[in-house]
Amino acid sequence: MNGYEKWDKKHVVHPKTHAYAFRKRLLEFVVQKGFRSIIEIGPGALVEYKIIKQRFPEVKYIIADVSDNILSKTSKQHPDIRRIRCAIEELESKVDSKEFDIVYASHVFEHTKNPQKAIKNAINSAKHFQFVFFKWRFEGDLKPSYRRKKAYWSSMFNIYMIEKEIKRYGNIERSFICNNKTGEQTDFNKYRRGKTGQHRTGNYLIYQGSSKS
C-alpha cells in the first residue's frame, strides 16, 4: 500500500462529520484573503468544495489523491474539477511552484509515509495553506503509529515536529484549536502551555499561513 491507507471503501467521510465546525474555517480564510484557486489534497467527499462553491461559483478547484475510486466518483459528480492522481510526496512533479492561491489538507499528513516531504510539497504548491490535524500528541515519535478502526486508519504523532516542518517552508499566520460542537476557537499557544499527551476529543488543530518565497 506504499504506506497509505486503503481508502477505496464505501464511505470516506461519515455524513455526521459534514457539519463539523472546522470545515467552515476554510471558507472564512478564502473570504478573508480573496482566494480564487484552491488545491485540496485528500478531498474525501468534497464537503469543503461544496461549501465554497455555493459562495464562489467561479472558484478554480483542484484535487489530488491516490485513490482511483475517489477520483472516478469526482469526475462523474463534479466534471469541472481538475483531478491529479498522485501521493503528496509526488506532487512537486505534477504542479508548478506556487501555482494555486491556497492548498488545503485535512486529516492527511497523519496518513502519509513521509510527513516531512508531504508538508514540503504541499506548501510549495500554493501561496497559502490551511492544514487540519485530528489525532496528534505533544510528545512522542514523528513516525505514525497506525491502528485499525472500522474502514479507516487513525494515527498520532508529535505535533511539535510537524510544526517545525511547516515553519521550514511556510510562515504560520495562525494556529488554533477549533471545537467541532461549539465552533469555539482557542489560540494553540495558549492551549498547549504546560500540556503533554494527546489532545481532547472533539478539538481539531488548524494551521493557516503563507509559503516562503
Low-confidence stretches: 1-18, 141-155
Helix and strand content put the structural class at: alpha/beta
Provide a count of the helices.
6
Strand order of the largest sheet: 3-2-1-4-5-10-8-9
- Our Rg estimate from Cα atoms comes to 16 Å
What is this entry, summarized?
This protein is α/β, with parallel strands linked by helices and 213 residues long. Helices cover 25% and strands 27% of the residues. An eight-stranded mixed beta sheet has the order 3-2-1-4-5-10-8-9, with helices on both faces.
Write the layout of secondary structure elements.
Layout: H1 24-33, E1 37-41, H2 47-55, E2 60-65, H3 68-77, E3 82-85, E4 100-106, H4 115-124, E5 126-133, E6 147-149, E7 152-154, H5 159-169, E8 170-179, E9 185-187, H6 188-191, E10 203-211
Parallel strand pairs: 1-2, 1-4, 2-3, 4-5
Antiparallel strand pairs: 5-10, 6-7, 8-9, 8-10
Helix pairs in contact: 4-5
Structure description:
With 213 residues, the protein is an alpha/beta fold. It has helices at residues 24-33, 47-55, 68-77, 115-124, 159-169, 188-191, and strands at residues 37-41, 60-65, 82-85, 100-106, 126-133, 147-149, 152-154, 170-179, 185-187, 203-211. An 8-stranded mixed β-sheet has the order 3-2-1-4-5-10-8-9, with helices on both faces. The chain has a two-stranded antiparallel ribbon with strand order 6-7. α3 (68-77) links the parallel β2 and β3 (82-85).
